[in-house]
Specification:
Length: 188
């Protein structure tokens, strides 16, 4: 096994945990909202608060660092390659969303749920918003995997446009997914 092979293993493993974890958070969030149990919504919030900094952040950071090392190690990749620039842009988007919105908001929600001893209608609505916005972040992660797999260049305009249109369409569908009103759970 070469150093490149090992770095590729680390990169793919980190990405698999990151995107798989994001997908599972969505499934659990969807179930917590659909079941209509305030207790389940509280447990989901606590789980997100625990998993984010202990699993998701290290996995995304590991995938990112291993990816950088792969580019430095390979004579055929360069930081000026179009697909690497696209990947860095997508990573920056999801990194900023996680660190500026998701992480702080989930921490605030966890503290407020604990302080109030449960879920109020306002907290339930905020939890639902985090889940819905997390769906968009998950689409960005899938676009990142698409970019890493296909390695498009800016001259592959239709490939990039097609991926963006598909990602936007899926995002709209995921945001509009029907589900039980989160605020109804707070009254149970």
């Amino acid at each position: 096994m070469t150093r490149y092979d090992f770095l590729l293993f680390l990169h793919i493993s980190g990405a698999a945990i990151w995107i798989g974890g994001g997908a599972m958070m969505q499934f659990f969030g969807f179930r917590a909202l659909a079941v209509g149990s305030a207790d389940r919504l509280v447990a989901f919030t606590r789980d997100m608060e625990w998993i984010g900094p202990r699993v998701m952040s290290p996995a995304s950071g590991g995938a990112f660092l291993a990816g950088l090392a792969l580019v430095w190690d390979a004579p055929y990749w360069d930081f000026g390659d179009d697909w690497i620039l696209i990947g860095l842009g997508l990573f920056a988007f999801t990194f900023l969303a996680s660190n500026l919105y998701f992480g702080p908001e989930i921490a605030r929600l966890g503290k407020q749920v604990a302080a109030k001893g449960g879920v109020t209608p306002e907290l339930a609505a905020r939890i639902a918003r985090v889940v819905v916005l997390g769906r968009i972040d998950l689409v960005v992660l899938f676009l990142l995997v698409f970019d890493m797999s296909v390695k498009p260049s800016f001259s592959d305009g239709w490939t990039i446009i097609g991926a963006l249109v598909a990602g936007a369409a899926v995002s709209v569908l995921l945001v509009l997914m029907p589900g039980r009103q989160a605020s109804a759970m707070a009254t149970e």
